[in-house]
Specification:
8 helices; 4 strands; 59% helix; elongated; transmembrane
Length: 317
């Protein structure tokens, strides 16, 4: 049994420390379960537990005649001695009033503001899951493009490797754009969708510039611009993931998104610094590539964790 200053997740039974002011609020567990923290037990003015002089709650004392009769005051259905509500007609034995069921379809809005029907929410979460998985494939394609580019540098006269790198890069950009389109249907706040729309624009522009650079024989700066647009699109999509994780109460995913953002910015800064070095050495380039690979790995891990969390939330309804 958890202590008074702790609470447990009802799904995975993981124990958390209860902070001041958190009682009664809805929180999210790392397993994806959302639940409301139970209120603390009521106490009297001296701080001790409430006690009644006769040991019987007041509402049971008021219901004593009905309990003694052991039958409903309205429909005369048999009741247990301590029953308060008749299961046959719904009459409250304390007041004699019949319970009124709420109209069908008049459920209240949840605390997170998502008032969609369960079926609509399930579809939106499914599209979001597909979009995140498409981004995972896009990120893997970018990593494979980097590897093929390194191989092409050290292997001379290998047009097949160069064309394979171009094909993988175009496929990665296409998957990234497709993932952004699918995620437009996600249950995220408005600012997250605005950032996602900007990410989609970067993906589309980068794809067009990449095609023009490779098929039209454009200057190498065009290929560099396409790569930069792809990186900006990834960073903007990371901002969307941050908004989605905050909206769905995934604190661990939110922390990882902030770490990935910082690592990616650091890798870009290191790459830019190494690019302008007049005496760029092989070891410097190896270090920059290691940072880029590490950023890609962290980003892929974040996407996989978020994909699992979204799938768990969707299946739990």
């Amino acid at each position: 049994m958890p202590a008074a200053n702790t609470f447990s997740c009802p799904s995975c039974e993981k124990t958390y420390r209860l902070k001041e002011g958190m009682a009664g609020k809805k929180v999210g567990c790392k397993c994806g379960e959302r639940f409301r923290i139970p209120e603390a037990a009521a106490e009297d003015e001296e701080g001790g537990p409430l006690e009644l002089s006769d040991g019987t709650p007041a509402w049971l004392a008021d219901a004593a005649p009905a309990a003694a009769a052991a039958e409903c005051s309205r429909c005369n259905a048999p009741l247990k001695p301590s029953a308060v509500l008749c299961l046959n007609c719904g009459t409250d034995q304390r007041t004699g009033a019949a319970a009124v069921a709420p109209p069908a379809g008049s459920g209240s809005m949840d605390d997170d503001g998502d008032d969609d029907a369960p079926a609509a929410t399930h579809r939106r979460m499914t599209l979001t899951l597909w979009g995140i998985n498409a981004q995972i494939l896009s990120l893997l394609a970018k990593g494979l493009t980097l590897i093929l580019g390194i191989v092409a540098v050290f292997a001379s006269n290998t047009p097949a490797i160069e064309w394979a790198a171009v094909a993988v890069a175009l496929a990665g950009a296409g998957l990234g754009g497709l993932g952004a389109v699918l995620c437009l249907f996600s249950p995220s706040p408005l600012w997250g969708r605005v950032v996602l729309a900007a990410s989609l624009a970067c993906y589309a522009a980068g794809f067009c510039v990449e095609v023009w650079a490779e098929l039209g024989g454009a200057h190498w700066l065009a290929a560099a611009a396409a790569t930069l647009l792809g990186v900006v699109g990834l960073l903007l999509f990371l901002g969307f993931l941050l908004s989605l994780a905050e909206h769905l109460d995934f604190p661990e995913v939110t922390d990882n998104a902030n770490k990935v953002f910082g690592t990616t910015i650091g890798a870009l800064a290191a790459a830019g610094f190494a690019w302008v070095l007049p005496f760029g050495t092989f070891l410097v380039m190896i270090g920059v590539l290691a940072m880029i690979v590490y950023a890609i790995w962290m980003y892929a891990t974040l996407l996989i964790d978020l994909s699992r969390s979204v799938a768990y939330r969707r299946d739990r309804g």
